[in-house]
Specification:
heterodimer; A: 249 residues; mainly alpha; globular; B: 391 residues; alpha+beta; Rossmann fold; Coagulation Factor XIII, Chain A, domain 1; five-stranded antiparallel beta sheet; binds adenosine-5'-diphosphate; binds magnesium ion
Chain lengths: 249, 391
Amino acid sequence: MLGAIWSLLNPVVFLAVFTFVAKVLGAAVDDYPVFLLSGLLSWNLFSVSLSTGAQSVVANANLVKKVYFPREILPLATVGVALVDFVLQSMVYLAFLIVIRYGFVLGSIWLYPLAFVALSLLTVAVTFWVSSMNVRYRDLQHLIGLALLVWFWLTPIVYAAGKTHEKIVTGHRLGSLFWRIYLLNPTAWIVFGFQRALYHSPDANAVLAPFTTAQLGVGLCVVIVILLALLYATWRIFFGLSGDFAEEL
Amino acid sequence: MSIAIEIAGVSKRFRMYREKPSSLKQRILSGRVRAEDFWALRDVSFDVAEGEFFALIGQNGSGKSTLLKVIAGILRPSEGVVRQRGRIAGLLELGAGFHPELTGRENVYLNAAFLGLSHRKTDAVYDDIVEFAELREFMDTAVKFYSSGMLVRLGFACAVHVDPEVILIDEVLAVGDEAFQARCLDRVRTFQKEGRTIVLVTHALDMARQLCDRAAMLDHGVIHAIGGPDQVVREMRRTISKHDLEFAREEGSREIEILGGSLHRGADPLAGALAPGECVTLQVDLKANEPVDDPVVSFALHDGANNFVFGSDTAQHGLALGRVDGKRRVRFQLGPVPFTGGQYWVTVGVHSRDNQRVYHVQDQRYSFEVRQTEGRRDQTYVPVTVGVEEL
Ligand SMILES: Nc1ncnc2c1ncn2[C@@H]1O[C@H](COP(=O)(O)OP(=O)(O)O)[C@@H](O)[C@H]1O
Ligand SMILES: [Mg+2]
C-alpha cells in the first residue's frame, strides 16, 4: 500500500516540478510536462526492471540453491512489480491530461497499445538476459547503471526528437547516417510511439520524430517482430544458464 | 508396480575453479580460466517404485545430498536424466524455502507456494501444519529468530501437509529432538501406507534397516550397493569399518577386548568363496585389559537377509577359559558348512558366563561367502555319500 503511494507520488512531483519550470523559465517544447512524462514513464519501467531484475536471481540465492521452483519467476516478478508501478503512474498522468483539459486524439491513440506491447517485450527480454548473466558476472549490475545512463540520452525523452533530427541532418555532413544509426535503438521507437499517441500540441510535428502515425505503426510492428525474436533468444539463454544457478551462486 | 523416480545414467560434475572469475573485469583480464572437474555423481542409475521407502546411505561427501538435489530439480545433471512423476516435496536443508525476514505464517504460505499449493488450499491445511509443528505461539515471529529445531519442525510440517507424491528428506531431521523425530517417522510411515514414495538420507543405519524397503549406498559418487536394506547396511558397515572402526556396531564394557576375528580355511586365511560342505575356522583374538574370571566367547551367523542361522559359544562346548589375563586366541572349527549360496555375517562377542556382563561385541563385522551351486535350489547342504550294491 505504501509502495503504491510512493509510485503515485513520483509522477505527481514530476508533473508539478516541470509545470512550474516550464511556466517560470519557459521551455522549448510546448506543454513540456505532457511531452516529458509521455516518454519518461515507459523509460522508468524499462530501467527499473533492468536494474532490479539484474539482481533478482542473485538476491534470492538462498531460495535458488535450496528449493526447486521455475527460475523464470524471479525476473518476471521484478518486471511485474515495475509494470504495476507503470500502470499506477500512467493513471496519474492520464488523470493529469484530463484535469488540464489536454485531451486525446483518436487518430493516434491507437499507437499506445502497440508501443506498450513493444515496451513489455523489450523489458522482459533484456531482464531475462541481465538476470542470468549477473549470476556469473556480478559486476554486470554496475555496467547496467552506466549503460542505462547512455541509453537514456540516446532516447528522445527529455529532448525533442523532431528538433534534434533537424539539427543533425542539416548541421552535419554525416547527419543522415547518424540519424539512421539512432533509429536502430528500439527504445527510441517505443518512445516515438508513446509520444505520438499522447502528445498533440500545435507544434507537435516539429517536436516529435519526423514520422506519420501510420509510419510509426508499421515501425512498431517491425520492432515487435524483432523483439519477439530477441525474447526467444534471451529466454533460451536464461534456460540454458538457469540449470546451473544453484551451483553458481 | 509403477515407477515414481527413474534415475538413468546420472552424473554430476562440479567445476572447481582455481580462481573463479566472478566479474566481467576479471574474465576479460585473465583470459582462459583454469577449472578442474569434480564428479560428485558418476553414472548413477536406479528406479524408486511408487510407494517405496528408499534409504540412501553413504559416507560424508559421497554425493547423497547432490543426488537428492538432482532428483528435486535444483541441480541439473551433467549427464543422464531424472524422470519423476507428481509433486515432490523436499526437506533438503535447514530452513530451505524460508525467508528469514518473514514470519512463520507468511513462510508457510511461501513454502506451500513453492510446492505448488494455491493460497486457498494452504488455508485448508494451515492449522494442521501449525499443530504438527507445535509452533502456534511463534507463527507471527520472524523465522530468523527460530532455533534450528523449530525450523526443522516447520519445514517438515509444511512438506508433509502439501500432499506430495514424493518426499525427499536429507539428514536435517537429525536436528530435531527425539520426540519430534519419532513423530516424523510415524508420519512418514503413514505416508508410506498411503502409497507415497519416500527417499531418505540417513546416518542412522539401524533405523534405515528397520524402516526401509530398499536402500542404496553411495561411495564417491558411485552406487556401491543397492538392494535390501539389511544387505546394504551391512555393506556400509563393512566399508566404513575399513576406515573407521568406531562406526560398525560395537559395544561392551571392555574388560576384555576383541582384537580381531578372522576366518581360515585349514591354516590359511580364507580367500574367495567357500564351497558348500567345506570346513571353516573362526579365530578370535582377545586381550584382557584386567584379569577376568571365566569369560565366554560366542559367535553368531546371519544370512544375507539378516536371519539368524547359527550360533554357539565356548561354554556350550565345555570349554572354560579360566582366569584370563593377557592375550588369548580362541578357535571355533566349524564342520562341513551346511549353507547354500550367499553371504554370511559373523558376530563375535565376549561375555560373562551368566550373560549379565557383555565385555565386547562386534556386530556382524566379518563375513564369508558360500558359493551357489549352479542351477540348484537347495535350502541346505547335507553331505551325502552314495553307493550301489547288487542285490
Ligand atoms: N556446489 C558445489 N560445488 C562444488 N562441489 C560441490 C558442490 N556441492 C557439493 N560438492 C561436492 O560434492 C561432493 C558430494 O557432496 P554431497 O552430495 O553434499 O555429499 P553428502 O551429502 O553425501 O555428504 C563433496 O565432495 C562436495 O564437496
Ligand atoms: Mg549431505
